[in-house]
Design a protein that fits this description.
4 copies of one chain form a homotetramer.
Chain A: H1 10-32, H2 39-46, H3 50-56, H4 60-84, H5 92-107, H6 111-119, H7 130-146, H8 156-175, H9 184-187, H10 191-199
Chain B binds a DNA duplex through α3.
Protein name (chains A, B, C, D): TetR/AcrR family transcriptional regulator
Organism (chains A, B, C, D): Herbaspirillum lusitanum
Domain HTH tetR-type (chains A, B, C, D): 15-75
Chain lengths: 205, 205, 205, 205
DNA sequence: AATGAATGAGCCTTCATTCAT
DNA sequence: AATGAATGAAGGCTCATTCAT
């Protein structure tokens, strides 16, 4: 009676493997930088053989892509969690304060990996999948829609896009420590005014 | 009277060569992308030998660096030209309108190269030289200072930094044609409100 | 009963590979000379890919170094074999006769390789490992010590050093076929008198 | 009246140039080692252009060859000077003492260059010209002939060859400071006994 | 004769990917 | 499915030599 299943169903094993590999990739990337990262190294760091690595990823690009996806998805989860908890009670400002807190927190999950993914990558080639991008977009749009009345921007989609870009740029400024420049701490408090300022700006036409 | 020198003095020849090489680099980069660009190809595209290329650039990185510098310097020229022509008569809004026009124009000088330099590069490693960065910064700060009274942001340096980041992010959104997303044309008119909105936002504390 | 392991245990395979590569290196070196020897050629001669070669040797220098070590170690083996078989019965002269026979034989194992290693190499940079050098030294010193009474040289270590140098120089003269010069055969019988003459020379002070 | 000749006759200029170039080669060789020496560097060190260098030497090998020749010729001069001053009064021992002194002094003329020429060169390929070799040989043979009666070696030519090799080996041991090993100073006094011991060794057959 | 920029063959080395075991 | 040795195309860079000026 072969009732006992494999300890783990195949799919699960595969997923665990994929995660192990991505963890290794992340570690190597952080430790050595993109230029000195290669598949053999990643396999070794994952405790498997290169051959096995290629069982789970068809090529190096797929590996990079998957890592980006996973990283961004994790950030998205945190972000959506915050958005989902918003009630109708919140003001535009308080909502964005929460949202920015969440975004900063998300970026600080794996800050080194995040830095490399943002700065050191020849990889916008393969942009984060549209699905993820859209969910970020939709979350922000949801907030804007809820406060439609308070917003002077004529087109919500356009405003969402602009806010998204502003947030990304400014939060990276806070999170990514550059060699010179102003302290991240002093930028942080400016993000809310920037967003709110834009959304509520007086428009002539 | 053999007074006439060689058609071009030595220094000039060297500069012409450097420019020829950078032009070739730019072309190859645009045509094939960073990953498929190599020094032999660049030399060929420049109509010279690899050896010659290495007479002018010590290594591949120096080539990339120089190309970035040249590109950014050209953008800076255009930008500073606009800023220099500003009179005290301009309003905060009109000044930023001019400034954004200039920036967009600057980014459209070599849009494809610009895209690759912005997106495809493992190159924050070698950031644009601080001097250039600072001159961008100073230009913007100059404008802000002139309109200090109209600005609610408490710290001009911080505000400059934020504006700079916003401008970069939003102008890239306008200039860099992504596969999906909103049309750049619709983003463009939002930049002024975004900047002005931030600068004049009501601040509680 | 699948008790039989792979035909060759891993370590053995690796060693075989190293030897195959060194054999190829040796062959190429002999056929083309050092200046025209390169890693790709060696790999080809070894019937493997360059990549494989670099799996066993980190760089070209390591390859050369290893070849020298192997060659000298083999010579050392032959030499030590002879020394070990010496009994107390031998005279100073008969001992050195045997010793010189062994050295000549050792040099004639791979005479062409030996010539290149001795003459064509920018390689004192990476001297034969001290351990090997010392074992040669110690063997000779052992013989001298046994015959201490018959030796006029005041310091055994110094005498060992001198004898070692003399032997190397004279045996190379015998073994290395130069373009012109005396026939090696006529030099050979002079080595024993040279060594014995030195060791037993009358010293005034 | 174009009476004034070029300041220097052509031949002389050429010789001066050749010497300038060889001096530069020597300097570069000593400062950077063979592996890091190249023709462009030598030309620069000589204060001329590569093109000019190639006016005087057809290729790199010729340059190396010429430098060796010059160096060895200079050593030969010093050596022959000593030999020429020998009178019939000298004993075998005193003659060799003088001769060894001269050789050591010769090797210490440009010790660093000498070291590189001896140790770091893939250059026995192009052995010192036979003429020079022969003059060394002849000088030594001359001394041996003068003392023929005191010498037990049956064949003067063979003995000359052996002595020559011994001298070269032992003097290099004195002059070339290796990383480990006995102090050169302690080897020096052994050279005379070695040579004399060989020449006067008792021979059985 | 001098110059030195230009040449380009050639070398060492890396690494994504394959495949026999 | 796993292994990891093997592959080999590709790339950065050097340097002896040439040649237009």
């Amino acid at each position: 009676m072969k009732l006992q299943p494999r300890k783990e169903p195949r799919q699960a094993r595969s997923r665990a493997m994929v995660d192990t590999i991505l963890d290794a990739m992340s570690r190597v990337l952080v430790e050595r930088g993109y230029a000195k990262t290669n598949t053999n190294l990643v396999a070794e760091a994952a405790g498997i053989s290169v051959g096995s690595l290629y069982q789970y990823f068809p090529n190096k690009d797929a590996l990079i892509f998957a890592l980006r996806e996973r990283h961004v998805t994790r950030m998205l989860s945190l972000f959506e969690g915050v958005v989902d908890q918003m009630t109708d009670a919140g003001s535009l400002t308080s909502d964005f304060e929460a949202l920015i807190d969440a975004l900063v927190a998300a970026h600080l999950l794996e800050p080194e990996l995040n830095r490399i993914l943002e700065e050191e990558f020849p990889a916008f080639n393969m942009p984060v999948s549209n699905q993820i991008r859209e969910r970020f977009f939709d979350s922000i749009r949801g907030v804007l829609k809820r406060h439609r009345a308070a917003i002077s921007a004529p087109d919500i989609d356009v405003a969402t896009f602009v806010v998204q870009r502003m947030l990304k740029a400014l939060i990276n400024a806070v999170v990514l420590t550059g060699p010179g420049g102003l302290s991240p701490g002093s930028i942080r408090p400016e993000i809310v005014p920037a967003v709110i300022g834009y959304l509520t700006a007086q428009r002539l036409n």
